[in-house]
Amino acid sequence: MKQCNVAIAGLGVVGAQTAQLLLNNQSSYATKTGANITLKAVSARSKGKDRGFDISSLHWCDNPVDLATMDDIDIVVEVMGGSDGPALALTKAALSAGKHVVTANKAMIALHGMELAKLAEDNNAQLCFESSVAGGIPALKILREGLAANDIQAVSGILNGTCNYILSTMEQTGRAFNDVLSEAQALGYAEADPTFDVDGIDAAHKLAILQSIAFAVQPNFDNLSITGIRAITDMDISYAAELGYRIRLIGRATAAGDAGVAPMLLPMGSALASVTGPTNAVNYEATPVQTISAMGPGAGAGPTASAVVADIMDIASGRNTYPFGRAAKDLASQSGNTSTAAQSSYYLRLRVTDEKGVLADVTDVLNACDMSIETLIQKQLEDGKDADLVMILHEASSENLVNACDKLKTMSVVGDMSLPMAVQK
Ligand code: HSE
Out of 111, 231, 308, 362, which could bridge 419 as a Cys pair, Cβ 3.0 to 4.6 Å? Predict the structure, then answer.
């Protein structure tokens, strides 16, 4: 039987789970792939740490980059993380040496995917990163292989489990943002630096990868518009509920070139609004298949290792695809930023001084920016002096929205203003 030797760099929760899957399931994976997939070598920060399984029979490297030049290794698994540094050095060295690389590193692929895809092609090596997007959901295989015959119109979804956990838990329990974030960190959903989660960066890394495969463009993280969830208050979550919506962090890229991550109001009955906890969901709008949705665990050891091992098994079986669905030379470069012309309805909350003429002044500003109110709730605050104006605005361009918000902010009667959020009808 064909021999396929694997090295793993990084024995955190994902690396350790990947190692255990390979060690415990060798014969079943051999039946499925026709190859004897054998874990041979590992590298991690601390050799002595108890990981719940025995690494004494495995070759140990203090420096992960040394795995790239080991003679009998066919596949290097990079699960250390970090867009640059040792992860990038190892990946480049391994591909340059003609070794296949499997990585869960969305930041590295979003920022350096083009260079790495070229390097893989030049060295006849495979570069696989299924686990980098939406954890256990085969989000890239659905798009690249399953929907290969289709024209994709849009790919969108809930791409960060931590944010979804925070938003849905705040909504269900009324607890504060920081309190729920600490819990998400303790549960192991959050990135090492949780600002990547709450500022939308992690979701944007994943969106850049989906966008590239969906629309044959070079992954370009810098081209995405990104808004995180830090500014979402429990007040907005409860006003949104009163209006029949839930707030979710959504990444969306379209064939027209719009691509971004931002919190949105979704109708309470819609599929994505009902996704709670660290679950991810990806929607594909395509022709001729129409709409496909996939939902599942987007973070954590088991789901991520499941996707890592599936990539290893693809390589062992001889299944070979271009990482972004076509040769690197056929990926178009992207220039300029996302257009601001796309129309959307918006949610906006203004805290105003509760006095005569204020609502008329607010509507005058909106009118001057070619915007108008579709639904309005006015809530008197307990102090008797202020009120919240909670509005759903009729469809307008994001450019008009920004102009209107800039003008509203300068009004002396307007105090606190919510993050303006697109509303899906
Ligand atoms: N921090 C990420 C999330 C982990 O919360 O979704 C998976 O990429």
Answer: 231
Q: Which atom of ligand 1 is nearest to the CA of 299?
A: 7
For domain 2-135+303-330, give the CATH number.
Answer: 3.40.50.720
Cis peptide before 194 (omega within 30 of 0): no
Ligand 1 atom with the smallest distance to the CA of 196 is 1
pLDDT in the model for residue 340: 57
Helices (H), 275-397: 301-317, 358-368
Strands 100-103 and 127-128: parallel
Say whether pTM exceeds 0.90. yes
Q: How far apart are CA 423 and CA 425, in angstroms?
A: 6
Which amino acids are annotated catalytic?
Answer: 206
pLDDT of residue 7: 98
- Burial (0-12, 13-18, 19+ Cβ within 10 Å), 5: middle
CB 285 within 8 A of CB 272: no
Half-sphere exposure of 95 (CA within 13 A, CB side): 21
According to the model, what pLDDT value does residue 341 have?
Answer: 61
Nearest CA to ligand 1 atom 4: 299
Question: Cβ(398) to ligand 1 under 6 A?
Answer: no
> What are the start-end ranges of the H helices in 195-260?
195-198, 201-215, 234-242
Residues 6+ apart with CB under 8 A from 361: 411, 413
Longest dimension (CA), the chain: 83
Residue 135 Cβ < 6 Å to ligand 1: yes
Query: Where along the chain do the CATH 3.30.70.260 domains lie?
Result: 343-423
**CATH 3.10.129.10 given to domain 140-297:** no
Q: Does residue 189 line the site of ligand 1, with CB under 6 A?
A: yes
Series of mean pLDDT values for 10-residue runs along the chain (425 residues) = 97 96 98 98 94 93 96 97 96 98 98 98 98 97 98 98 95 91 87 91 98 97 95 94 97 94 96 95 98 94 96 98 97 72 90 94 97 95 92 96 97 96 95
Residue ranges of the chain that CATH labels 3.40.50.720: 2-135+303-330
Query: Does the beta carbon of 298 sit less than 6 angstroms from any atom of ligand 1?
Result: yes
At 375 the three-state DSSP class reads strand
**What is 343-423's CATH topology?**
Alpha-Beta Plaits (3.30.70)
What is the model's pLDDT at position 176?
87
